[in-house]
């Protein structure tokens, strides 16, 4: 009998980070903030990383963590005070600590739920070998070509946009199963080829999705290498991190001009050019990027990742000029999910920029200019409940997320399938800047779709891809 899943313990690597981080913090421009920034992701390991399970919960919260700590390290590198690198500096230190406490509270809420069940410490690659590689490949290739079509269609379906978008996110479940199966069956080159094709294709849209591919592939590699650490795998992961970071920096530098080219100069999130034209323009902009342009990309990336300025601005505005809403935003977010636009066509559209203008006192462009600026659900929690109440609300929200995760994992046929089905949940909760209405609505739709998938689609799908004489169900809980 294999061992039950437990939370990841600190090893030599983690203690080395603490030691090196402590020394670095003492020598940095912002020592206290820096040591908090170093310890923050490590604390989340003890709350969210269960050794038997794919670490999607952990990386969802670490991605949010970057929105809080990015400018701590950036200000250290620039040798300036943390306050000086922000647009709304008055309450920025308070916003930093409130966000740290809030995300820890959210994680602790998740922890309280997920610590109560243990899955068998199964070998993901061994589980994947029961599935037919050829059938998985064909299904995934079909999803590759269908995904952009459905994504574009979703933006023209009004009330069906969010449900359709949630449905097509289940492509990632097939992605993970196919990836692990390829590495387990010696077909890794096949997967890498398809992966590279998708990365290139992702740059032809207004919203480049290459970041999503790198994130899920990175987590998939951690799964693949968990019980079989080879030098080649380690080198591959390091290369993946370097290439992904480089592409992100380059993208942030060329994005304004590239998007203007794609939209034909219109204030709209569209692509008016062919795939070849888009890729040629992209290559041209990359070739033109020099050291100064790369430095611009670094600055833009840091500014894009960091997102606590809105909470700082909200602290200046609320309650000094606008009263706390006493739960109105949270209640409204849950009330919206009970009023699907399909049946309530007159339901007011979500305008993130309007909410940001009201609760920060600053003017932001809205949908009329093809953009949207969100406060983010953490800042909205502050607007609702204040500094103390927001942490309680985030703790309760963590309980909900933990319950959803537990439901998906314990009702899945095996831990591989459960982990795959959790990926759309990952995309619902990995963004610190996501608006409250959207994250709550997304979680509700995800639950509905998961129920339908498990009730009607999952068993025939697994039966189709399972090799003859294999049993695709297995005991999961100890």
Walk me through what this model shows:
By secondary structure, this protein is mainly alpha-helical. It has one domain (12-193, 306-465). 68% of the residues lie in helices and 0% in strands. The chain contains 19 helices and no strands. It has helices at residues 12-27, 31-48, 56-78, 92-114, 124-128, 133-154, 161-168, 171-184, 188-202, 210-224, 231-262, 275-288, 291-305, 309-317, 328-337, 352-360, 377-410, 415-429, 436-465. Helix 7 (161-168) packs across helix 19, helix 8 crosses helix 10 (210-224) and helix 17 packs parallel to helix 19. The protein is globular, with a radius of gyration of 22 Å. The chain starts with 11 loop residues before the first helix and ends in a 13-residue tail after the last helix. The model has no long low-confidence stretch (mean pLDDT 89).
Counting DSSP H or I runs of 4 or more residues, the number of helices is 19
The biggest beta sheet is recorded as:
none
Order of helices and strands: HHHHHHHHHHHHHHHHHHH
- Number of individual domains: 1
Percent strand equals under 5%
Low-pLDDT stretches = none
Helix/sheet category = mainly alpha
**Overall pLDDT metric:** 89
**Judging from the principal axes of the Cα atoms, what is the shape?**
globular
The first-to-last residue Cα distance is 10 Å
Helix content: 55-70%
Number of strands: 0
**Radius of gyration over C-alpha positions, nearest whole angstrom:** 22 Å
